[in-house]
Design goal:
Number of helices: 10
Strand order of the largest sheet: 3-4-2-5-1-6-7-8
Radius of gyration: 18 Å
Number of strands: 8
Shape: globular
Amino acid sequence: MKIAVTGKGGVGKTTLSSTLSCIFSKEYKVFAIDADPDMNLASSLGIHDKITPISQMRDLIKERTGAEQGSSFGEVFKMNPKISDLPETLSLDYGPDGNLKILVMGTVDKGGDGCVCPASVLLKALLRHMILKKDEIVILDMEAGIEHLGRKTAESVDMMIVVVEPGLKSLETAQRIKKLAGDIGVQNIVAVVNKVSSIEEEEFVEEKLIELNIEMLGIIPRDPAVITADMQGEPLAQYPESSALKSIQEIGKKILNTKIDRD
């Protein structure tokens, strides 16, 4: 199962990604990939050590692509670098059983580098490998855009979850993501509604999602435990009485029970 989690900034996609990763890792091997420029996935899991993202590993980038990041325009480098060993060697183990591994991708400064550069080539090749080749559950915590996904990679994502909250701006972002994802072949696009405080808010978002033709996978209530976990630097999964956690557990069950149709 390969799952991409996206949505407008601040809607709670990292909380959902990290919590689902913890829940699934109790029974399955999971790779949690931080593909968001803010790079908060590790801290959301309670890991606060300084982590060098792959996009800043200059020696590795040069070794695998044959060129340094920021090299002069026109320099030749490998478009298909070897990356099959990197998921294991660059990932962080989380938890006592080692079922959950975390990869921090980082991002590429496009100002002056352009979209095709050694670092971006390495990141896309690694992401493609994770989605196409790895048997584990892979959860991608993404930015609102889907630039990390090429067409063939996107076609192999089993589910794209757009996290929305009550409000038109969040829903407008969901509409743009749905169009972009559809354009590159993502077939299963669903929404999780977060930070819901009332029946009125729930009904408002549900009505808008019907208009956008986006299936609602689940609803997460506004919960003080989410704020407490963030302030304490702890994963939400450590708060068993959390209403948000219980909702995410139900969403996790739905995801695992989803029938994936592959052509």
